[in-house]
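Students often ask why we bother encoding 3D structure as a string. The short answer is that it lets us treat folding as translation between two languages. Here is a chain of 230 residues written in the first language.
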Amino acid sequence: MNSVSARKAYIPSKESIVSTSDVDGVNTAFGYWGPLSYPMRRRLNMAVEAMKRKNGYHAILDAGYGCGIFLSDLHRRLDPETGMLYGIDVHDQHDAVKTHLVMREGLKADRVHLSNHSLFELPFEDHTFDLVVSVSVLEHIAPDLLVGCLREIKRVAMPDAEIILGFPTDCMFIRTLAVLQHQDLKKNHPSTHLDIFRAITDAGFRMVDQTGFPAFAGPLTMHYNVRVVS
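And here it is in the second language, the structure alphabet:
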């Protein structure tokens, strides 16, 4: 459980994951089917690559953990003595998600705390976390609410925390994937990457690292990952 990669996220087995929504990777061909799963894996790898320390974090928040696909990797990056992992999401499957990961992936139950909360009002004290990650979450929030959510992340993060945000674009490839998965993209992704970039600035963040997938794809970029500071 202590081995971590500097560039690749640990992806748990499909059997370890609890479905929490129709758009979870576990429910689609693009989550766990061979080469088709590469975009899902790449977005998590990009988040790992953006981490400066890679491990030894004292308090990690997965803001919008979904089915918990990133939690096993984040658990491995905790300080072995004091580290605590927190996750929030709006679904009510937190007990089931935690139980599966504890039983099947060996996560330590007393160091993982999942709860039913939203980004609009995080249930944590100011300056709690030294790492906050939020991957494929912000696009599900209406544009006029983004700044408030990002300010909540800013509030609970330590002044020198690493804050890593990942989100898709509305390029042709993403639209095609939505059609293949019978998803209403405008309903599921009310905010575009442009909305999110604007909100990051308006919330008082400064972007210090930005990567795209595929790299150097320009208008065909499918996913952005940014590391921000206050």
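Translate back mentally: Residues 14-229 form a domain with the Rossmann fold fold (CATH 3.40.50.150). Keep this in mind for the problem set.
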